[in-house]
Structures
1.
Amino acid sequence: MSVLERPAAGDASGRGAAFTSPQAGDELTIVEPLIFDSSRPGRRAVRYPSPSSAARAAAAGQPPIPDAAARATPPRLPEVAELDLLRHFNRLSHLNHAIELGFYPLGSCTMKYNPKVNEWAARLPGLADSHPLDPDPLAQGSLELEWLLAELLKEISGFAAISLQPAAGAHGELTGLLMTRAYHRSRGEGEQRTKVLVPDSSHGTNPATATMVGYTAVTIPSNPRGGIDLEALRAALGPDTAALMITNPSTLGIFEDQIDQVVAAVKEAGAIAYMDGANLNAILGRFRPGEAGFDVMHFNLHKTFSTPHGGGGPGAGPIGVSERLAPFLPTPLPLLVAGEPAEVRRNAWTGRPTPGASFALEESGARPTSIGKVRAFTGNFGMFVRAYTYIRSNGGDGLREVSNDAVLAANYLRVRLADAFDLPYDRICKHEVVFSGRRQKRQHGVTTLDIAKAILDHRIHPPTIYFPLIVEEALMIEPTETESLETLDEFVEIMHGIAALAETAPDELKQAPRTTPVGRLDEAAAARRPDLKHDFAALSTPPSVQQEVGARPQAAGKG
Amino acid sequence: MSYSPHTAADRERMLAAIGVESVDDLFADIPAAVRSTRFDLPAPLAEQEVRAELARLAGQNRIPRVSFLGAGVYRHLVPAVVSEVIGRAEFSTSYTPYQPEVSQGTLQSIYEFQSLICELTGMEVATASHYDGATATAEAALMACRLTGRHKVAVSTAVNPQVRRVLATYCAGPGVEVVEVPADLSEGGTGVTAPEVAAGALTDDCACLIAQQPNMFGGIEAMGQLADAAHQVGALMVAVVEPTSLALLAAPGSYGADIVAAEGQPLGIPPSYGGPYVGLMASRMDTVRQMPGRLVGATRDGQGRKGYVLTLQAREQHIRREKAASNICTNQALCALAAATYLSAVGPQGLREVADMSAVQARHAAAAIESAGLGQRRFSEPYFAEVAIRISDAARRHAALAEQGIVAGYLLQPDYPELADTLLLAATELTTDADVEALVAGLESTR
Amino acid sequence: MSTTPPDDRRYSREHEWVRMEGSVAVIGITGFAADELGDIVYVELPEVGATLAQFSSFGVVESVKAVSDLFAPVSGEVAEVNADLRTSPELLNTDPFGSGWIAKIALGDPAEMDKLLDAAAYAELTAG
């Protein structure tokens, strides 16, 4: 067995091998066995008190769980001591890149600093221990926070009403399109309006959402400047159009400079104007979609308002809507049932409660036009706490500064890297800039994937690659507002170095990454013969025995 | 103010490099007609000020001193080690593992999560997680429609109403019909779904039967017989389960469930007024290509080192776009990590103790109420850790007890008009004998 | 592996090939298509007995990061599918014109072959 393999279960010395300091010339090789491999019968990390004899005696008079419904064999969960458990996950954590370790310019994902005070707030017992079905009189703080956050989001976006319920951006899209359909149906046009228009630069979630709602997605081409082709849009709009879904700024990082005409054309066709708000972080205080005539937008709360992305969630995808869509919002909404809204806001902005103010959850069935529920309860409350904290910390001036500096940084990288990589849309960008690696591919056979892997060796997360689809060999860079100029300059230097290597030593880039815990992984093999869970059978006998009886050699390591 | 590191000099340098005079020039492409006219937000707060504001809001909540509230969300011990692990910046401030070489921590932890959920449910494959249990159930129903080519789903009324409402919303999208299978809520009834009633409601155009174990009332369903009824008409069995109960109750894989959906909140995630939680979904390998959501698989690198990647991605929206199995994009990775850490921390013995203590204290509470002559169990069938109790003047007493900081469970009547004066009481391992005494005393005092 | 289209068969503009074995049409995808898709990881095969219409979708082929519909180059009833593709989809990459065949079809209308390209014309189509 190679030392690179996972050590065999029972090999106590093997566990430490993962973190043995590398010898000079050795590659850094870090492996961590599965948690199941360190399981030993009888070990445990958490202990619980036993029920009292009085409780047991009282319970004995109640009907027991019938044998027919009982579990036959206990689940083979790991049995580990607390320290070993912690080491396992801490070691795993060392295999990750993260914002708090280094630059993470992953376009479209807004990997900016997530302030610690947000985390402090989300963990306050008064909030974290609040049960979603606690009677309203016990949950006034949770309800007020939701109500205040909705008020802030209204002002930020210019929309008439907010639902916090959707759990993610794509979930907000689903909600928005379900409301779109409810709106058209309410006007007797439900049958006729069957198409959702999406630009060819859109997120994949847009057409996928259209399908989930029973709509047909129709793709609209982009114009040579990277915006939506207004003539093609006008030609596609008609009495069968349910909605246009448009990301603005677009996935190219470009503001749709004809957005007023786009919205007007959609409205004129009687369709709903949906804005994908994934890139709202670029335009805070500059453009309010509701004010500009959009009917609905989802907020990626975790991006613009800074929840740590958690390795891929949880996030939150509240939606803002215009007056005409408001009747269809999901239920229940948090309501201010006693008190003047302006007074409650004014007091909250100065940190004071409003005497006599009272909040309640909208009652079930109170708004028959609602599309219903898209998620249990009122949404990802933990993200609301963080977003509220973030907005209050920044204030209006701070939020403007967020967008200003995000756009400034992206444009800085745009001009600094323009000599090294092709810029298919060479104009002022917003919070992100999309380059193309086509020159490197055509002239030197170096793909954007190779470039991304080479970046990994510099302890920087690569940009988003191969998206948007309309840019060949796309490299989508979103620096965010929280990276210092030194970090940006260092990145520029590294990218120039990689571009130079593409010319002089392309094979070197093909070998990247060299310094990561694992090299390029065989994704084709993973998909052809999926291995999606631990195979207990492979460890049911000690590895030494398996070898003696000639079991598959990799079984000892594979587990 | 913002968390931007830039000094005035930094900004000047960047503007000069770009070749514009001011940052406003970078927004000149916004048409004048639609530029923002207002942005009337409160002033920035310093950390001590924002802390005071959040403490004020937290203080407006009154966390009950005694609570028997469950109904889908349960107050369990969140071991300190779980909070520690998910608080690590390497996990919390990373994103979707698009670059597996620098994401093995997240990827392996999800692989372990998938393995743990398979083991708990007795299924062959589990996804990397969904938004919550309700959306996981709705996605399971739509998956059953894709697998069977049918457009109708049957759901027991003893499935949590929050879940059924979300199911209805999701099914309205593609026009899937939802038919209800009535549980026996009659006077002296069982409180569970009779297999013969399910069989009567199931027709050969049904894609699936959805039933919950334990059900909304804590009752224990005859899941095997319900699965048989579904399979009789070629429909799939979707089992909605509560994960800690699986220490004591049969694994869905053992009674013929085809798809399992669950709310994973009890596994180390605080109630947090409704989220974030984690939806669990598991199924069989032969259905994997119709499963929605992310999956992590094991593979090797060029040197033969084992590693993990996102796999079977061609099912997903970023590739399949309008033909994708679902529009789901993110999962709830950090919550899945909490669940994986929780299950590894408690182990089989700990999970059994949690389930056992919950079941004992629910029975303790029911027995104490009955023996004090305060109320009676509403249903005849055995239950797990939640029990429906008929009690006179329930709404008034529930509200009065809340004023004392005691939440006497969940009032069922708003969701089930036939269940007037009925409280749904839940217990967990955190329920103490003193809690039971306080509940009984509170009910006595409001007679 | 060769991506050169062999002369013994005809080609659709959607990059499927068809080769006659008596009255049975063997169909597959071209080496050019397999190259464009990259590492193929899954093939959704038609049901034996299914009736295909010329140029209609009859299945799906997935690579790691792309999905493509399969279009029947000719009409007819599916007589046999290549079960090896279930366990070894990579045959489409390694031997697209041989052991990577997808299905055998009882040809409905031989005249449909005239609507397809010969090897030279197909080579020209994919040369750009």
2.
Amino acid sequence: MDLTPLVEAAQNSALSEWMRTSLKAVAIINAFHVLSLVTVFGTIFLVDLRLLGYPNVQRSFGRMHHELLRFTWGAFGIAAVTGVLLFMVNAVTYHRNTAFWLKMVTIVLAGINMFVFERVTAKSVASWDKGVLPPPAARLAGALSIVLWVAVIVFGRWIGFTKGYDFSIPENVQFDFSLPTQ
Amino acid sequence: MLEFAEWLQATPFSVAIQSTLWLTPLLQTIHITMIGIVFVSMLNVALRVLGLIRADEPLADVWRRFAPWFWSALCVMATTGLVLSISEPIRQVTALSFWLKMSLLAVGIVSALSFGRAIRAAAAAANPVSSGKARIVAVATVLLWVAIMFLGRWIAYDVEIWESWHLA
């Protein structure tokens, strides 16, 4: 499936042009991306630890899960919107970038893991809501979730660090880091 | 200060970090995952003060649950932050965002310490914190840490964000 016309349209759009030429837009959108992604990760991490029975199984899983989910989804929404905007700024470059696709695939895998947990494993939650260690399937879902979301952060940072360039790095690109002085 | 930064950036240790391509993104990644833990730990306590989560648990218990994570993750961030700064001291020193971030961080740490102390005192005296004031402080605290995060991200965009106030 050739995505080139789509990404070119995104990159050449008025919105994308505005973001590139605006002095502060990308910096502000980026800041909201960071804020939302750390909230997604932090809230998911909390629930995953509870699934693993850490630090204890005293509090109701169902209650904790229910209370935090709205923050996770709200933050994910902001992360997704800001992510799309950031992607558009340099869509053609990013859509050819290995780390970008790894990140997207990992997010999908994390979503599938979550979906399977909600639809299958969580059905039995009444029997392990508190006082007992959750069943193996639940613990696996928690462990997988942590690994996958950390991986998303790793890939995301790699995209940002290299500005989306895999190997042939152009001369005039301003990177996120300064090269050694010697 | 700039002279010190220039000297630091040329030291073998700094150059070694700069030259190891994967090291800076690794340190940044650890820094980011730790932000998740610090921020959400603080957020849980703030949301409890606002009565939005864990209302069945005493505030002191919620604090006890999250405080160790908050402080431990913050220590890891201090370490990664220090090494990251050593690898690019000139950028840090000339960034207004960096100095504002460090100032707000100091405020955040002091406020967290005093909150912990107030919680213990309140539990001992069985004296609930004033509801209205506590809510305002909770919201202000969340905004403070959001500001710290924004400023951290803006170190790399310092010129664009602060324009003529950039320190170079």
